[in-house]
Amino acid sequence: MSSYDMTENAPRRRTLLGAAVAGTALAAAGGIVPVAASAAAFGWSDDGTQYVLDTGAGLVFKVSKSTGDITSLVYKGKEYEGYGGKHSHVESGLGASTVTLAQSGSTVLVTVAHGTLRHYIAARAGLNNVYLWTDKADTSFTATRFIARLKPGIFPNEGPDSWVEGADSVIEAGDVWRRADGQTRSKHYSGVRVMDYTHVGHTTGSVGLWMVRSNHEKASGGPFYRSLLRHSNELGVGLYEILHYDQSQTEPMRFGLQGPYLLAFTDGGAPDPALHAAVHDTSWVDGLGIPGWVGAAGRGRVAGVGLAGMDADRPYTVGFANADAQYWTRATAGTGAFSCRGMLPGTYTLTVYKGELAVHTGTVTVTAGTATALHTITLANDPATAPAIWRIGDWDGTPGAFKNAVLMTYAHPADVRAASWTGNVVVDGSDVSGSFPCYLWKDVNDGVLVHFRLTAAQAAAAHTLRIGVTTAFLNGRPQVTVNDWVSAIPSPPTQPSTRSLTNGSYRGNNHTFTHVVPASAWKTDPTQYNVLRLNVVSGSSGTGFLSPGTAIDCVDLLL
């Protein structure tokens, strides 16, 4: 076994062991034991203030023994880690922590303990990855994230989440920037839902550095949540794994062990697809003794025969959620068959989404080591099946059919590329969704008008007007006026309390406002246009794009 000088802060001495000797020592001990490895291959050393882990394949990284920060990432002799005097760490850095190390065969595991939070960092022989886990037990930290801080000037400073602090102008909250050409940039402008990416990072063409996300079972927000994934400027680069973040958040924080997620170096290309959370073989973690780790044998699966009542033109997602975990899977086009594996045992709310709109909910129980089979699920709650006199947009839980919607996932509403936010439309048989603004604000485009005609028979009856929204800012919600008839002020639905419409997210809680418009409100002459006016109301105030607002999913008038 190795011999160490246990004096605090003193450089430790070690005995060099070959791989065979290290394996013998481990077997004799019957578990994880501190073992030093050959300096010429995979292994670790202690320089007094940091643990130095060498994958033996080109990556050497260091972990501070006092804070658990990753203080160095050297790949093929080049340093990539650190900017602004800060290093790579959980949250914004844990500060003083208890940091220990143990080796188990071809894996070295560093454990970082800070209060009730535990963080784990691992290296595996021959693989140029840094494996990470975070175990959060309570709300002593308000967010759950890991940020890798990388040196400036190595990777290209480009993309909607990049900016130049020395040249661009701040236009909102210190984190939204306008370039000289009028385009806007922010760390929030990833433009990607969590279900749509497996990794994020940068490449020079010859070297790539990527954050490969975990399965997010202990994260919050569901499959359609958008959060910051990376940022870059002339001062440095950040790569994130965000598990709980309060921006546009719709769910409480979940607790427990999350991971592995990892930093992966490549020779310029994307990381190995075998590292993606959905297929990653993590059986090697089973023997590391990480508290809270549940291997494949302790997990179950849900499999569904299919979905009946699907819209052939829309994608469907099946989500599972309870207070402890969340999962999702895509339903097969045509049949709606689905399968979700690797789930922790428990009872979950099962939600079927058409696009991002819930059209079915139920419950399902998952048992370790077995597959729960579900018969065909009939979708009976799709609002699009109701016959309508006219409809603007699609009932899919997103503002995607409307003007500026796609741009708003990676730009600010003030961006030069945005079309005018006004948007009066005339419903006369054609699809006018592309002329209708995706967002309405009290101080920007209040009072949008919809002109439409009714037949004499239609004008003789009351009709239901529906307005679907996906989120709101400052409790903004639509009050309607039809000709001279004015609706009551609707109560605000529960929505995130933070910025949303200006930081790349329309995702909140989908809600439908329903108004029964009496026959007395309509024009009786079928050649005359009725006029629907949408006004944003709120008990709060703000200016410009930070005034009360809402994102529109669909507006229709039922037969």
TrEMBL record:
GO terms for cellular component: extracellular region. CDD domains: RGL4_C (cd10317), RGL4_N (cd10320). Residues 299-373, 389-557 form the Rhamnogalacturonan lyase domain. Signal peptide: none annotated. It comes from the Bacteria. InterPro entries: Carb-bd-like_fold, Gal_mutarotase_sf_dom, Galactose-bd-like_sf, GH-type_carb-bd, RG-lyase_II, RG-lyase_III, Rhamnogalacturonase_B, RhgB_N. It is an enzyme of class 4 (lyase). PROSITE patterns: TAT. Residues 42-292 form the Rhamnogalacturonase B N-terminal domain. Transmembrane segments: none annotated. PANTHER family: RHAMNOGALACTURONATE LYASE-RELATED. Belongs to the polysaccharide lyase 4 family. This is rhamnogalacturonan endolyase. It comes from Streptomyces viridochromogenes. The lineage of its organism: Bacteria, Bacillati, Actinomycetota, Actinomycetes, Kitasatosporales.
